[in-house]
């Protein structure tokens, strides 16, 4: 027997269904039933998830549906699942009945068939080998996708969520629990452990613990190696500055000054995106990084040979070259740097002949905050180069008609934190669900709240758009009727394109 929350959040069902009305408790689920007639609720088994067909859904807005929900409540039904096209027609009285009875109402994804969902729920409830394999596969993929510079705690949380089993790291080997040792330089640094499972689930857990212990050992090793390197390298300081928050930036600026960097002067940032090396195949990540680093280093040397003060920094999968000046170089600095970068790109193109390089150049800005702003402009220019399919040439920010006000707004710490936090409930969904809802919100706001025009742009039925929009504003902590909140959401969606 599984709880409703475990089912809805399982890797197999999470992409297919979501809460429309969430109960205060977490009811147990024993079975799944398809209903073609509301009168059949009297025969539904206790603790079932009930899926309504389109025929049964025709009466959703009628009094018969309220009566059927009361019957379902008396039968102890755990949840009722409606199609996306029908969710918007649920009356408030029906939602109130469901809330009082502790029964959930779920909405089904637009592209999912009822029988497909019923079979998926049945497999999860049965808990057979295919379910264990699916969860183990999802957990291993979560391990592979985990950034090496992220925390071990977040890695354990993500993998545990994928496997639907809490995973932790402890100092001593736990008795009577499955565990794997984390070996770093042939020494045990800790144990990855989880509650014991049964049958096929136990085999899946064993596979995941083995892969997880290996990954944690690699993350720990890399962290230690990086600490052993010179901590005051200029490249690292600039990289830290670009990723610093408002609270940590002052410390990084002091480190930069201590290294003699002209951080308080003027800066023009150049971003290099290596399109074919940004998403390498499994096992090729290190090779791809080294190829990017070699070309970026060669570009730095070529830029220095042409004159001026240049430094290198990393920004995710991209590299950033920074041209620094003691005095204001004037409005023409961006164009001059772009012209120089064209020569640098031409000179280094032979190093990676099969790689598409997008290059964006920011404007001249003053001080640490100005450097961050110029980097944001360079990123926006590189994105514009990608959209216009312009490769191999440096694109100045001023030449692509970008909205300077938006970039300047997003370059500030306060604005960036506001943009990220307001969309966080959607981003937290992860994967395609998050992207789908954020894209829908973006288009919906651009179309001034028109469900019809939004549906036309997204190639969706108007009812499906209404379901998504309702779902979006249930998740977001904003007032749908407040113009200021809607403006912040629209700015956040647009600023997200600069990421």
Provide a quick synopsis of the model:
The chain has helices at 4-8, 54-57, 63-74, 84-87, 92-101, 114-126, 129-145, 152-163, 199-228, 234-243, 249-258, 285-305, 333-348, 367-387, 404-411, 413-427, 431-446, 451-458, 462-475, 483-496, and strands spanning 2-3, 17-21, 28-29, 31-35, 48-52, 79-82, 104-108, 168-170, 179-184, 187-193, 266-274, 309-315, 318-325, 357-361, 365-366, 394-396. It is an alpha/beta fold and 499 residues long.
Describe, in plain words, how this protein is organized in 3D.
Residues 228-232 have low confidence and may be disordered. Strands 11, 12, 13, 14, 15 and 16 form a six-stranded mixed beta sheet that branches. Strands 2-7-6-5-4 form a five-stranded mixed beta sheet. It has 20 helices and 16 strands. 52% of the residues lie in helices and 16% in strands. By secondary structure, it is α/β, with parallel strands linked by helices. It has four domains: 2-126, 3-Layer(aba) Sandwich (Udp-n-acetylmuramoylalanyl-d-glutamate--2,6- Diaminopimelate Ligase, Chain: A, domain 1); 131-228, no CATH class; 234-404, 2-Layer Sandwich (Alpha-Beta Plaits); 414-496, PucR C-terminal helix-turn-helix domain (Arc Repressor Mutant, subunit A), CATH 1.10.10.2840. The relative contact order is 0.07.
Secondary structure layout:
Blueprint: E1 2-3, H1 4-8, E2 17-21, E3 28-29, E4 31-35, E5 48-52, H2 54-57, H3 63-74, E6 79-82, H4 84-87, H5 92-101, E7 104-108, H6 114-126, H7 129-145, H8 152-163, E8 168-170, E9 179-184, E10 187-193, H9 199-228, H10 234-243, H11 249-258, E11 266-274, H12 285-305, E12 309-315, E13 318-325, H13 333-348, E14 357-361, E15 365-366, H14 367-387, E16 394-396, H15 404-411, H16 413-427, H17 431-446, H18 451-458, H19 462-475, H20 483-496
Parallel strand pairs: 4-5, 5-6, 6-7, 14-16
Antiparallel strand pairs: 1-3, 2-7, 8-10, 9-10, 11-13, 11-14, 11-15, 12-13
Helix pairs in contact: 3-5, 7-8, 7-9, 8-9, 10-11, 12-13, 14-15, 16-20, 17-19, 17-20, 18-19
